[in-house]
Design a protein that fits this description.
Distance between the termini: 39 Å
Radius of gyration: 24 Å
Strand content: under 5%
């Protein structure tokens, strides 16, 4: 049994763009969260992933020190640097997935937020309220649709669907 995940360039990771008016919000949200989850990055969307805290600097030497004031080894500094780099790389992957599927107007609105969890939360706030309006508008449009006298009933049902 093949347990390899498809490459990140796979069409499985393509999410259609979120339209300006949010009419595809419900399906967009499900698709983007599925893609982010498939990449193992859900902690970055829900805010559970946190940036590692850098070591404090010694006031006299300006070098990083442990909480007890002891100097750090080169290995300890490198390990923390690696953890910080890994956080930024994964957070940036989530940002790119979101930024690549939203409009430029929305991107300009959320780009000031620093981490992907805050960006996603803002996108949700903006579009969650629109969902009800979209449903109301859709119901109104469905109720207003009529099959013309002598029109093609099959085509009319196709439009309704």
């Amino acid at each position: 049994m093949d347990t390899m995940l498809p490459s990140s360039n796979s069409s499985l990771f393509n999410v259609p763009q979120l339209v300006e008016d949010g009419t595809n919000w419900i399906t967009y949200k499900e698709r983007i969260l599925t893609v982010i989850g498939a990449r193992g990055l859900m902690w970055y969307v829900d805010g559970q992933a946190t940036k590692p805290i850098p070591y404090a600097l010694d006031a006299k030497t300006g070098k990083p020190v442990k909480p007890d004031g002891m100097p750090l080894t080169a290995t300890e500094i490198e390990e923390l640097d690696d953890k910080i780099d890994k956080f930024y790389q994964k957070d940036s992957l989530v940002k790119q997935q979101i930024f690549g599927t939203i409009t430029d107007r929305l991107l300009l609105r959320v780009q000031k937020l620093k981490v992907s969890a805050k960006i996603w939360a803002e996108v949700c706030v903006i579009h969650e309220g629109k969902t009800e309006l979209v449903q109301i508008d859709l119901r109104r449009r469905l109720q207003d649709m009529r099959c013309e006298e002598g029109g093609d009933v099959k085509a009319h049902f196709g439009k309704l669907l």
